[in-house]
């Protein structure tokens, strides 16, 4: 399976970072393409996007100030197939992308994504006290996978904190 393209540009409002592409994303070439993934619904319900987008529109969100990448580029059926070596390499590559593109906020879509990136065990939802790259804000949100057992309202509530953060940054 081939890797999918990052959607990056300088000074994004938010760079969304996932674990790695799903097999469905690799097939379609678009982020969060698995029909069981609730990413696009969450963004809309949290007020981050003005409407519910679909995965095949992922690149158009660059115009809204939102970009996409993953800590590991290799598509897999599940994140537990990612190797330790891939995480180590991906951690450094991600850090270089953040330094280069300087997004205002880096939103980690899944606590485990941030744990791998920051090499930390104890992580809370929302803004992290110390960003890994100075000048950015690290924000940890729940995974949008349909496998996550949190209630949808709770997930959306955490993403609404990201919406409030973006509004505050505009002031």
Protein architecture, described:
It comes from Peribacillus asahii. InterPro entries: MUG/TDG, Uracil-DNA_glycosylase-like, Uracil-DNA_glycosylase-like_sf. This is G/U mismatch-specific DNA glycosylase. The chain has 171 residues and is an alpha/beta fold. The chain has one domain: Uracil-DNA glycosylase-like domain (Uracil-DNA Glycosylase, subunit E), CATH 3.40.470. The protein contains five helices and five strands, in the order E-H-H-E-H-E-H-E-E-H. Strands 2-1-3-5-4 form a five-stranded mixed sheet, with helices on both faces. The longest helix is centred in the last third of the chain and has 19 residues. The chain is globular, with a radius of gyration of 15 Å.
Topology:
Blueprint: E1 14-18, H1 23-28, H2 39-45, E2 66-70, H3 84-101, E3 105-109, H4 111-118, E4 126-127, E5 137-141, H5 152-170
Parallel strand pairs: 1-2, 1-3, 3-5
Antiparallel strand pairs: 4-5
Kindly report the name of the CATH homologous superfamily.
Uracil-DNA glycosylase-like domain
CATH topology: Uracil-DNA Glycosylase, subunit E
How many helices? The count is: 5
Largest sheet: 5 strands, mixed
Shape: globular
Short description:
With 171 residues, the protein is α/β, with parallel strands linked by helices.
Descriptive labels:
171 residues; alpha/beta; 5 helices; 5 strands
